[in-house]
C-alpha cells in the first residue's frame, strides 16, 4: 500500500514536470511521426513487400521497439541533473520506498512511450495497417517491458557513473550493437548465418520478432511468448538492480 | 538525542593510476542533548559533511554506531529517517518546480496526506517569509530565498532533530542574521538542531555547544565559553616603551595571577591570565609601584580561533 502510494507520488511529480516542458512534448511526438512519414515510403521497395500495408506490418513494430529502447536508455541524463541538484539525496533521507523512487520514474517513461506508440499506430492505420486490438495490446505490453528495462538500467548506470560525460558514450556503445543486431529496422531474414547466430543472443532481437508476430496477427507463434518472457525477466532484473543503486548510491 | 560511538568512514578515490584512501572520519564520539543547537566547526575537508551524511542514513559508516532520537542507526535506518530532517550543503531544490510544490511533495514523501501536506506547506511558506514567491519556479529565487526553502523542506515533517549543513554559507550578513533567528526559532519549537559551519562568530553566537573537527577527528567539545576558558584564559596586552620592557618583565614575572608572560614583537608585554577583569587592576598597581609609565592596556578575550590554534597548531582562518 505504502509502496503503491510512493510510486504514484513520484510518477505524478515526474509526469507533471515532463508536461511542463513543451519542447520535450513536441519532440516526443514529432520524432516518431517523422520516421513514419519520411522513412516508411522507402520501405516497400526495400523490403520487397507486396503492398505498402505489408511493409508497415514489418516496419512499425521495429520502429516501436526502437523507440522503446532509446526512449529508455537515455533517461539517465535527467537523473544525473536531479542528482546534481540534490533532489535524489533529499528523497533518500525520507522514508520513501527506494523501489518507488525508481519505479515512479520508469513508469513515467513507460507511459510516455505508450503514448508515442499509440500516436504512431493511429497514423499507421491511415496507411492501411490493420492489427487486432488484442494483439496490439500484447505488443504494447512487450514495449512497456522493454522501456521499463532500458529506463531502469539507464537510471542504475546514471547513479553509478554520476556524470553525463560517462553516461553518453556508455549508452551509445550499448545501443549500437543492440540496434544493428536486432533486425529492428530491417528483418534479419536475409542475414548470413553467422549474423543470425549472434542475433540469437540479443534479447531485443527476440522482442522484435515477438512484436512483429503480434502485428502479423500470429498470436499462436512461439516467438510471442518467447519474446514476452525474455523481456519480462530482463525487466525484472533491471528494476531489481537499479533499485539497489537507489538504495545505496553515494552523492 | 544523538549519541555516536567510534563512527568511521573512509573513501577510496582514484587519482590517475593509483587509488588513494581518504580517512574522512576517524572515530567520532559525540553526544548531543535534546533541544540544543549543536555546532560542528571545522575547516574544509574536516569530515563534517561526511559525518552528517552518515547520521542522516545517506552513507553507511565503515565502523562504529549511533543512536539518533532513540533509533539505532544501523539496525533501524528507516526509523531514523522518520525522526530527522536533513538539509544538504549543496542545495536540494529543483529548478523547474515551485517552492510550494517542493514542500508538498517533500511532506508527502514522509507519508503525510495531501490536504495536510498543503496546510503544512502554506504554514512553512509563511514562517519563512516565502509566501510572496511560493508559486514561482525555484530557479528564479535568490540564494537566500532558496536556502530558506531548503530549510523549510528539512523541517516540514516536524522532525525531532534537524541537520543543517552550512545553512548560512553564501548569505549576506543580513540574511545570515535572519537565518540565525530562524534557527533559534526551531530550537524554541523544541527541535534539536545540528549545524555545521566554518564561521567562528556563528558558532559562538548561535550554538549552545560546539565540537571542533579537524582531519576527521574531534579535537574539542563544549560550550563556546567553556572551550575558550579551558584553552587560554584571557590575554592582557601591556603597552610600554621599549626601554622599559625589561624592568616591567621583572616586575610582573612571578606575580601569582600571571600564568605566562611573553614579550610582544611590537614591544610591550603579553600576559596570559585566568581572568582579565581582575588581573588588570593588579597589573596597573604593580607597574605604578615600580614607577613605570604605561602607554596602553588592552584585554583580549580568547576566540574560538585561539582554541583551534591550541588544539591543532594551525589557525582556522588560514586553513
Ligand atoms: N564521495 C567521496 N569520495 C571520495 N572522497 C570523499 C567523498 N566525500 C568526501 N570525501 C573526502 O572526505 C574528506 C571529508 O569531506 P567532507 O565533505 O566531509 O568535509 P567537510 O568538513 O564537510 O568540508 P567542507 O567544509 O568543505 O564542506 C575530504 O577529504 C573529501 O575529499
Ligand atoms: Mg561539508
Automatic annotation (TrEMBL), chain A:
TM regions (residue ranges): 21-43, 63-85, 106-127, 139-158, 178-195, 224-243
Any Gene Ontology CC annotation: ATP-binding cassette (ABC) transporter complex
Record family assignment: Belongs to the ABC-2 integral membrane protein family.
Cellular localization per UniProt: Cell membrane; Membrane
Biological process, per Gene Ontology: response to antibiotic
Name of the protein in its database record: Transport permease protein
InterPro entries in alphabetical order: ABC2_TM, ABC2_TM_bact-type, ABC_2_transport, T7SS_ABC-Transporter
Annotated ABC transmembrane type-2 domain residues: 23-249
From TrEMBL, chain B:
Source taxon at top rank: Bacteria
Cross-referenced Gene3D superfamilies: P-loop containing nucleotide triphosphate hydrolases
Membrane topology: Peripheral membrane protein; Multi-pass membrane protein
ABC transporter domain mapped to chain residues: 2-240
MF GO annotations: ATP binding; ATP hydrolysis activity
Cross-referenced Pfam families: ABC_tran, DrrA1-3_C
Localisation per UniProt entry: Cell membrane; Membrane
Predominant location: membrane
Alphabetically ordered keywords of this record: ATP-binding, Membrane, Nucleotide-binding, Transmembrane, Transmembrane helix, Transport
GO cellular component, one term: plasma membrane
One BP term from GO: daunorubicin transport
UniProt similarity note: Belongs to the ABC transporter superfamily. Drug exporter-1 (DrugE1) (TC 3.A.1.105) family.
Protein name: ABC transporter
Organism: Micromonospora arborensis
Source species taxonomy: Bacteria, Bacillati, Actinomycetota, Actinomycetes, Micromonosporales
